Amino acid sequence: MTIDAIRPPLLPLRRSRPSPDDTGAGHDVAVVDDAAPHGPSMLTVRRTASQDVQDRQVYLSVDGEEWATLLYGKAVTREIAPGRHVLKANNTLVRRSVTFDVAPGEHVRFQCVNKAHWTAMVFMAFLGAAVLTVTLTRESADVP
Questions:
Q1: pLDDT tens readout for residues 39-48
Q2: Distances (CA, A) of 96 to 29, 34, 52, 89, 114
Q3: What is the DSSP letter of 63?
Q4: Which pairs count as long-range contacts for 34-40, CB under 8 Å and 24+ apart, including other chains?
Q5: Whole-prediction pTM
Q6: Do residues 20 and 86 touch, judged by C-beta distance below 8 A?
Q7: In whole angstroms, how far apart are CA 114 and each of 14, 118, 129, 136?
Q8: Alpha carbon 139 to its chain's center
Q9: What are the pLDDT digits (tens) for 78-120?
């Protein structure tokens, strides 16, 4: 008994498409080089800006799904599917949302800032509490 007798036959991977000048001789099987994704797409939201009031939490959601509670000095990261998404931030007083697109393997980063509104001193003087507004700013790809 030879090794060829017990070895299972090789299965074709994928048939190549015949070209107009192809005679078909010797071109039964070809490996097609499909573009592989460059890894998972990622989303990171940081709250580290110096103009942040460093008070109150900010609630984040992606595509209507509650995601994280972000405190000052923290960052959160998650894997997301390629395509269009909506990121929402809410500090229980002001809500902001931003729509963004992400490509396969891309890492999208946002800076979240919870800062005092320009009327903060007036409200602080009369009410003892300031109005805080939240912003979401997309960072460039070269930010670590």
A1: 789 999 999 9
A2: 54, 39, 16, 5, 11
A3: T
A4: 37/104, 37/105, 38/104, 38/105, 39/105, 40/79, 40/105
A5: 0.67
A6: no
A7: 54, 13, 14, 9
A8: 12
A9: 999 999 999 999 998 889 999 999 999 999 999 999 987 655 5
Largest CA distance in the chain: 97
Please give the span between the terminal C-alpha atoms of the chain, in angstroms, as a whole number: 62
> What's the pLDDT score for residue 115?
85
Q: How confident is the model at residue 28 (pLDDT cuts 50, 70, 90)?
A: low
Rounded CA gap, 94 and 113, in Å? 12
Domains and CATH numbers, the chain: 41-138 (2.60.40)
If you count them, how many residues does the chain have? 144
Q: Are 107 and 138 in contact (CB under 8 A)?
A: no
**C-alpha span between 139 and 31 (Å, rounded):** 40
